[in-house]
Amino acid sequence: MQEPGVGAAEIMNGIRHVRPGGGFEPNMTMFEKTQVNGDSESEIFTFLKDACEYTDGTFSSGVNYSPLRVGDISWNFEKFLIDKFGKPYTRYHPTLLTTDTISADITTLLAA
């Protein structure tokens, strides 16, 4: 839970008044925060992590959940690509994700 705030309304207020502020009105659906690691992780993230190969060679210290598991999501910009049948296709570490990489994978999935 890296984004400060308790729920969607509080987070949205942070966007409106702090980042970028000035009464900015985001044009997106804001969902509730969820846990992606640990005993309280959301079932969707358990499913995604079990289906895709781990993308990081190191394990972060200083995390605030337990238990720690190999395969945990290490950063909030990590992405999962899912095919049109709902099957996880691959997982992207944020430092390795490029427009070219994901474009090629999306093209492959659309052609399947």
Automatic annotation (TrEMBL):
Q: Does the keyword Oxidoreductase apply?
A: yes
Q: Which GO terms describe its biological process?
A: response to oxidative stress
Q: What is its EC number?
A: 1.11.1.9
Keyword Signal in the entry? The reply is: yes
Molecular function as annotated in GO: glutathione peroxidase activity
Which reaction(s) does the protein catalyse, per the Swiss-Prot or TrEMBL entry? 2 glutathione + H2O2 = glutathione disulfide + 2 H2O
Subcellular location(s) of the protein: Secreted
Q: Which UniProt keywords apply?
A: Oxidoreductase, Peroxidase, Secreted, Signal
User: What is the enzyme's class at the highest EC level?
Assistant: oxidoreductase
Quote the PROSITE patterns the UniProt record gives: GLUTATHIONE_PEROXID_3
Identify one Gene Ontology CC term for this UniProt entry.
extracellular region
What is stated as this protein's family in its record? Belongs to the glutathione peroxidase family.
Specify the protein name: glutathione peroxidase
Q: Which organism is it from?
A: Halocaridina rubra (Hawaiian red shrimp)
